[in-house]
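Action item from last meeting closed. Structure (250 res):
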């Protein structure tokens, strides 16, 4: 597999806190890469730097062989990189379908708040996207009426509607009931695989990592301290002590 995204020597400090302290990482074409690590390790910072929400103070990020370091979020979306947030960014007073249509309209450069809701093309495309996620039944529901699992999926559907080649998801299962978690990840990875989207996801549930990740990267204090297949990495005593141990007691 070749690299779709190449991060080299990323540094970013907030005052004395080194949120990124020399991050080197290749994201391979077609893989599902999990990021694990304790709170404050710099996982979200990595996603923010990759998607243009934060600018690294040093280092470079290349996507499809071209530098994207320092581009703004909209420019990065246009290149083919999308993200979802730990807290879903849905317009709560709008329906699920309207939310996805709004994402599509923004992608197409329409910023009028009402026009998107009226345009058939975006609505049809929104419904087609929701269908792939098994969310069509909820298309007409207000976003604030959804349970956390559906809310997370709807947020990811908005990102997927942008037709990314690479999707970065910050804790897609946080706040989701344990009984729903596996089904949600299964749905979302099936959609991503069908659409040939490479995915990076921050995850705290080691069962999810073990079952769904091709590789796992372990973050600690702004650095990647282990990287490899889940079976290998999660069996590493240092990882168990420093990462999984902490998460179990979190
Ligand atoms: N915008 C910011 N301003 C100041 N400090 C920040 C900012 N973003 C992150 N940090 C700090 O950087 C460190 C890494 O944060 P973060 O990337 O959110 O960690 P994680 O996602 O692994 O929990 C933390 O100490 C956090 O408080
Ligand atoms: Mg985070």
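Sequence:
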């Amino acid at each position: 597999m070749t690299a779709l995204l190449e991060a080299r020597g990323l540094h970013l400090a907030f005052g004395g806190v080194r949120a990124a302290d020399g991050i080197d990482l290749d994201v391979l074409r077609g893989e599902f890469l999990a990021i694990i690590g304790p709170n404050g390790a710099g996982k979200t910072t990595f996603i923010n730097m990759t998607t243009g929400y934060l600018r690294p103070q040093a280092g470079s990020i290349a996507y499809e062989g071209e530098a994207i370091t320092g581009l703004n979020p909209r420019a990065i979306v246009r290149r083919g990189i999308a993200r979802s947030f730990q807290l879903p960014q849905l317009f709560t007073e709008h329906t699920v379908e309207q939310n996805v249509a709004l994402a599509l309209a923004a992608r197409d450069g329409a910023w009028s708040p009402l026009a998107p809701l009226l345009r058939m093309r975006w609505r049809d495309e929104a419904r087609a996207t929701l269908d792939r996620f098994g969310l069509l039944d909820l298309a007409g529901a207000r976003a604030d009426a959804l349970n956390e699992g559906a809310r997370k999926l709807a947020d990811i559907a908005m990102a997927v509607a942008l037709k990314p080649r690479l999707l970065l998801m910050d804790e897609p299962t946080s706040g989701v009931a344990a009984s729903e978690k596996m089904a949600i990840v299964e749905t979302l990875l099936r959609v991503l695989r069908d659409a040939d989207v490479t995915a990076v996801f921050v995850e705290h549930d080691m069962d999810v990592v073990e079952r769904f990740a091709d590789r796992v990267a372990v973050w600690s204090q702004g650095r990647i301290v282990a990287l490899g297949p889940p079976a290998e990495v999660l069996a590493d005593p240092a990882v168990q002590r420093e990462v999984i141990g902490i998460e179990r007691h979190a």
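Note appended to the action item: The mean pLDDT is 90.
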